[in-house]
Amino acid sequence: MSLEQQVQHVGKRKEAVARVYLRPRSGETGTIRVNKKSLEDYFVRETSRCLIMQPLELTSTVGEFDIYVNVFGGGLSGQAGAVKHGIARALCEADLSHRPVLKKAGHLTRDSRTVERKKYGLAGARRRFQYSKR
Q1: Which CATH number fits domain 7-105: 2.60.40.10, 3.30.230.10, 2.40.50.140, 3.40.50.10320?
Q2: Domain boundaries in the chain?
């Protein structure tokens, strides 16, 4: 597979938005940079890094691309999900043969679960205030 130009896509999860740029690798192996930091420096938790690598491992494209990501909003867990979503969508655009594999694994679907809003008269979204008999 040869990719001449850069592919750009957006991934979302909770309140996080990630812009993913997929380029043909320039060195021996592909690098992943998130907000101008390495993947290991930005996402300290191993589970977040594993989540991000899932679409690449599924399509056997680990190290084939230089991936640059701008991510903002939400927390680190939501940002990791947004980066995964963006990488999966960019891989589909780069090579359409990846689409069935990524679709079956559920990486192309935007996870729509967000924080439930707080309701009036309650302590949180569902939590009631403590009952006092006297």
Answers
A1: 3.30.230.10
A2: 7-105
